[in-house]
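hey can u check if this looks right to u? its 204 residues, i copy pasted from the old doc so theres a chance i mangled smth
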Amino acid sequence: MSGVRPRLEGMADVVLFHHIQGLTPGVVALADALRAAGHTIHAPDLYGGRTFGSIEEGAAFCRADDAPDLDALADAAVAELPEALVYAGISSGVMQAQRLAQTRPGARGALLLEACVPVTGEWAFGAWPAGVPVQVHGMDGDEFFAGEGDIDAARELVSLVPDAELFTYPGDRHLFEDSSLPQFDPEATTLLTTRLVAFLDGVG
């Protein structure tokens, strides 16, 4: 017996990678909302229980000489999971979600929240895999998403991939879907969650 639960019709298996401040209560709450819609959500903690009070503190942790190897930890987190996964990530967690969606066989979809890696050029993980649907979500005034080129990468993705969609939300908040942070936007998060559930229902 492998111990891997058989996939049920209509239910998606999702791995959700947390943002740069860690596996905060708000990330857990988002995972729980998707579980409540009938999907299986795996939310690995790549920081070993650490969370940080600001984006800057989380970034400093990731840049430190003794920083964890996030790629290796993400690979280990999915090693025992089915190949037929939806890969989701929030902000810096998109790096892992998008990398695995593009390089690990069997992806059923990708949900990229508040970040997007270009699919062409030196930073690309390679071509987007055929037949894998993807959504990108972010605020149109977010200094990180809109101001650092991620929204442009998302537009390129949509132009190249038939099953790609970009959803923008009015505002300038980063990590707006994290209910444990000051920048939480309940209205945008409700709409985001509705769209995520509809996507998962479609690929489940």
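The CA atoms of residues 176 and 184 lie 4 Å apart.
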